[in-house]
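It is worth pausing here to work through a concrete case rather than discussing structure prediction in the abstract. The textbook approach is simple: state the sequence, then state the predicted structure, then interpret. We follow exactly that order.
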Amino acid sequence: MIKETVDAVRVAEMEADRQIATAKENAEGEKAQVKVKESAYREKLMREAKAQADKAMNEVVKKCNEYDLVKEKQIEKEVAELKAQSDQKINVAVDAVIDSLI
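Step two, the predicted structure:
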C-alpha cells in the first residue's frame, strides 16, 4: 500500500509538472499575444496621432497661405498708392523745372 501511495504521489507530481509546463507554455503564448496586441495598438495610436498632426499642419499651411494672400494684396495696394504719389511728385517736379526755366 505504501508503494501504491508513493506511485500515486509520483504520478500526481508528474501530472502537476506537466500541468505546470502546459501553464508556462500557455502563459508564454499569452505574453506573446499581448506583445503583438501592444505593438498593433501602439502603431494604431501613432497612425492616428500622425493623421491628426498632418491635418493640423495642413490647416496651419492653409491659414498661412491665406494670410500671405491678404498681405500680398495689402502690399500691392500700398505699392500702387506709392507709385501714384510718385507720379504726382514727378509731375509737380517737372512742372517746377519747366516753370523755373521759363
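Step three, interpretation. The helical segments are 2-101. The longest helix spans residues 2-101.
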